[in-house]
Design a protein that fits this description.
The protein has 141 residues and is an all-alpha fold. 85% of the residues lie in helices and 0% in strands. The chain is built from five helices and no strands.
């Protein structure tokens, strides 16, 4: 007889099951939003690092060979590198903006939301690093 009462205590009502499903759906949506932000961070990091690599490699290459060819070009490797770094910064900024707006929407539609993520912190740190890299590249001729 005790087994039947224990088994009946573990069976959830349809309301409890619906609440569990709602909580899990919120978690999946919030985690998908985090994955989207991480994709923005990966893309922006690639753009920033590739832009800095182009800037550094070609500036060293041109300075070792001949300055005349580099000065006659319409678009210099430094400009291409700066543009790519700038696009990386824009990507991070727009990714953070999108993340913030989506989380605001998720939290407003589901009041029980208490999910805390460190993904935006990583994105902000990467944005700061990219800005520092961009500024130092501007002042280094």
């Amino acid at each position: 007889m005790e087994k039947n009462t224990q088994e009946s205590e573990h069976i959830k009502s349809s309301d409890e099951l619906a609440l569990d499903r709602t909580n899990l759906a919120y978690d999946r949506t919030a985690l998908a939003n985090n994955r989207t932000l991480m994709a923005w961070v990966r893309t922006a990091t690639s753009l920033t690092s590739f832009g800095f690599t182009i800037y550094k490699f070609f500036s060293d290459f041109v300075s070792k060979n001949n300055e005349l060819v580099a000065s006659e070009r319409l678009v210099k490797p430094r400009d291409v590198g700066m543009i790519l770094i700038f696009f990386g910064i824009l990507g991070l900024f727009f990714g953070l903006l999108e993340y913030h707006n989506d989380m605001k929407s998720i939290r407003s539609s589901y009041k029980g939301a208490k999910l805390i993520s460190f993904t935006p912190i990583l994105a902000i740190l990467m944005l700061i690093f990219s800005l520092v890299l961009f500024i130092t590249t501007i002042f280094r001729q």
